[in-house]
Give the backbone structure.
Amino acid sequence: MPHYAIGIDLGGTNIKAALVERSEGLISASSVPTETDQGAAHVLDRIVEVAQSVIDAAPGKHIAGIGIGAPGTINWDRTSLIYPPNIPGWEVINLREVLQKRLRKDLHVIVENDANAAALGSAHYGAGRPYDSFIMVTLGTGVGGAIIHQNTIFRGTTGAAGEIGHMTIDYDGPIDQAGVAGAIEAYLGQRFLSRHARYQLLNYPDSPLHQDAGPEMKDLTPAMLSEAASAGDEGATTVLAWAGHKLGCCLGSCINLLDIRTIIVGGGVSAAGDLILEPARKSVLHYIKPGLREGVKILQETLGNEVGMLGAAYLVFELLDTHAHSSERS
Amino acid sequence: MPHYAIGIDLGGTNIKAALVERSEGLISASSVPTETDQGAAHVLDRIVEVAQSVIDAAPGKHIAGIGIGAPGTINWDRTSLIYPPNIPGWEVINLREVLQKRLRKDLHVIVENDANAAALGSAHYGAGRPYDSFIMVTLGTGVGGAIIHQNTIFRGTTGAAGEIGHMTIDYDGPIDQAGVAGAIEAYLGQRFLSRHARYQLLNYPDSPLHQDAGPEMKDLTPAMLSEAASAGDEGATTVLAWAGHKLGCCLGSCINLLDIRTIIVGGGVSAAGDLILEPARKSVLHYIKPGLREGVKILQETLGNEVGMLGAAYLVFELLDTHAHSSERS
């Protein structure tokens, strides 16, 4: 019997939703703009709308529930999203209650941190499939992370484990948006990386990026850096190698602490692929105790942003498993 | 019915063994010099000897097994100690086989990393008792660590998790004995801390440590620093505050990654207590994402080095529990 669930990736720009079948993966997807400027109630309407559109597009298919990956804090029973940093005016909203009321009373609804959802997606559908345990790093606007240990999300005490972005690699280094000096996000977060690139590229006056990235290179994005580096731009290559080296330092600390030696890197900036990952693979070994260096792997997530939706849907499948187990026992 | 086990702490200087009763804790203890210079076979004899002496001192008490905390790598089924760094000539020795053969065939024997054993001891008998989850840091010759998550040791993929000592806080910092730049051990490891103190104290010519610590202060130990600082020595206080600040930076990274907010600090250097821990409590908050700062605690282990033996013995009690559960099920 096929098992269907909806996976939603609640981003600051778009809300993406997918119909996912447990074995087959992503069946169809749809996306609406989040329009956070119109307030929390509006965003809630958009979530209901995009979920409804996925349901409508799958007549006759029994959809067991909806999983939602969202930035910010999730309560321990994974029903509510609390003060998401990218949706102003959203305080504490119980998404389970809202979606059950407005869509279907018997829908399972689970909310999870977006990096955790992406890691779960990678574990079951993406680059993480061959591994019982791995560390997921997402390089996007910020730097996120998650830990998969023995096929489940390691959540820590309150569900917030995996905040790799705020781990320091230089106690006296540049300060990230959370106030942490030398946090890896202060090197690889999109805004920080672009600023570093703008300054570093002053040493490469022949780089075409001086023309392509607008006045004072204000429009420079990591994607433009990747593209330029792929085309052989020395300055862009230098910037990405610098970023990869820093990433490796931080991942070394993670491996020392967790003894989990497979790293999967996702998020927009990871599209740079080996331009970032190859320098990271070199530096990471210098930041790990020798006894733990064997078998260290840094891999690129191949499914891109789809893993977020896939993992969100998988939360529902996990829940169904739990229910099946407990009814077997009783 | 009382439950007895022997807990052994296999150190480079001494082998300490204790008779432990599950509820009452440490009943009696004994210690022999390790004499590593006489080779692995001799050390093995010493282990057997000290265990036998504990057995002899407890006539009529049924001792279920022996747990051993040892530095170095332990195999996954926790029977063998592999290349311990402080016992030259010791390659791979199956301690279960040896102790069962030479002491009693039905003894349970379990070997565990010494930091993990100390954490387990703290969890069941020491400062860790009120907490389901905590991070243990041991400040001794080196800096060790362990993770207790939901009352059990988090072992990672190969059992080597918790290598906090080699986590970097400055990717371009001083290099520790494992080759890792800016590793916390390169600040707080005994040799590194003493060297830093010798140089820092040049700025404090009136410190009595210039007399007490021998020519060029070559005999300076962390214990002498603690003592001097407790007596009001400004130079020694400055050194310990510097060390505590660095410790806090590293612990911040651990908390971001694990979302485990209770830290217990043990090991010889932790005898400095608040002289190190108070500066760590201040700096740690600057190295954690704001959402995770609430409830962060850095505590001193109050049982001292006893936790290692207690935790080693507890490995046996855990094993008995597992056996009891599986015989209930079958």
Notes: DSSP finds ten helices and 13 strands in chain A. Chain A touches chain B through 49 residues (CB under 8 Å).
